[in-house]
# Entry
Amino acid sequence: MLETEQAPYFVDVKWLSENLSDPNLRVLDATWSVPGNSSDLPDGAIPGARFFDLGFLKSKTPLGAAHPPKDVLKSMADELGLNAENHIIVYDKQGYFSAARVWWSFKTIGHKKISVLRDGFPAWTGAGREIAENLQSSGTRSDYRISDPAVKGVSIEAILEAISSNTQIIDARPPGRFSGETPEPREGLRSGHIPSSLNLPLGRLKTSQGELLEDNEIHQVLEDEGINKKSPIITTCGSGVTAAALALVFEHLGFEDISVYTGSWTEYGASDYPIETT
# Structure
């Protein structure tokens, strides 16, 4: 049976396979890649999956906005035939990357029953499950009912306040970009990081095969990195995608005060505010 209120943060392949025929279930393929870096993704889809265009949503989200526009999200949900009572399962073809940003986006309009497929499409194909040749068409248009946000997003003003507070700013970008040794992939951005921020690349939470570590292993990584579960956290990255992936993991592990800086380095790196390099 599907849950009637809050859904689990993650579901696994076995769970999804057993529940795929439930009429209240909706599966979204949320695959998105940094522009110019979309090669080598596998073909096919999980049966019944519909495509959620994260790139379109990002293009309609003003830089610096704490949350994506509600009217755009509602329109996209309507086009996909979604309603607020559906249990939505989100996955991406990288394994664990852009699906979390879509999870977070739906949480900004109060969706209760939404989960991410742990390790995504690679886990599905690796388990030998059925693969559809194409994504499913959207079907009948719905009238999605928006609710109050169930997650927090912040603007650059909150970042500036956090720099000199006990709030932990955690950056999910790779170490070279955090330190400033590797140039940013987006033109016009400085290299470095927000002062007082900590670097926790999303890859640190994955195995060498790209699968998410077990919860106890992630807890150990966070302890090793000096991340305090009791202090507020703002996650950031290049454009707010892996920031959402960190936020989902933190919430799954029981952290309570988590915010995503949606503007991330795309906004901060283009500003005149102080940066650090190491």
Observations:
- The chain is about 30% helix and 15% strand.
- The CA atoms of residues 222 and 236 lie 16 Å apart.
- Residues 10-126 form a domain with the Oxidized Rhodanese; domain 1 fold (CATH 3.40.250.10).
- The chain has a mean pLDDT of 95.
